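Hi,

I'm pasting everything inline rather than attaching a file, because the server keeps stripping attachments. The sequence lines come first, and each chain or strand is labelled.
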Amino acid sequence: MAGTLIGEELTIEGEITSDEEVTVDGTLRGTLTTVDNVSIGPSGVVEADIRAGSLVVAGQVTGNVTASDRIDLQAGGRLIGDVKASRLTIADGASFKGNVDMEL
Amino acid sequence: MAAASVIGRGTLIRGNVSGDAALDVQGRVQGDVTMQGDVSVGDEARIDGKLTGAQVSIAGTVVGNVRGSEAVLVEPGARVVGDLSAPRIGVAEGALVRGNVRTDGEPELEVARRPAAAVRRPMPARAPVAAARPQPVAHKPAVAPVEAVARAPVPKPAPEPPKVEVASVSEPHLEAPKPVENKPAAPAPVVPVLNRNIRGKKKKAHRS
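And the predicted assembly:
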């Protein structure tokens, strides 16, 4: 599997910059910037601003998120922060608190 | 075997990474990596910081100390600048390592101090022989002060020391070994000194 996988038991404190897919099942504190897709798994806990091509949130994210394509907040996911994306879905059962800006 | 976590090739992490399981680093990390499990560093990977793991295997670049609680293996093509420490350490042929390498449990090896001490002893022995010479040296301002220091024991050339600038003249009171230590400033050659009055001074030397 190409890309970066941050496993459940992994904790990263700092900035992640990438040009590939990033999957976060662990803990991240800092910032996350990538051109490709970002997927936050159910066990993922992210306290960071995220910039991504696209973003799927099934875990906890606290921070502003910006995607050039789309953001999907899945059931069980929790997002506290502002969202900026041209496409957005918030599933039934997701938690969200923040502003939404869909003009990119 | 896929490690629990992977830092991909196109990823740079500026900050610390820590965890309980294994990690495969294929990208770059500027910061410390502290894992309870195995860590493998890919051939294009680079870690600038301390690396700690259980079994640490390095095929890329690590700038920082490496500690393995089980083993540290440095593979061909790897470059490590930093200390290696583990119960078992392997460095393959072709790997570049610069730093201290230390396997656990080895007692401190004490070597090399004795030969140095042995070297020092002969020095004071020479001093009395040369002692005669430095006296005429006093006539030669440039060399004199230094020489007086070097061959301290003899030159109680009370008459000589217009070169009092040579605070060293006082030092001759400390006989034998110590003047040797003052020596470092001395260019040392005794040869040029041989000149007048040697014999006269010699007699004085013997008395002192």
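Residues 122-131 of chain B form the longest helix (10 residues).

If the labels don't parse on your end, tell me and I'll reformat.
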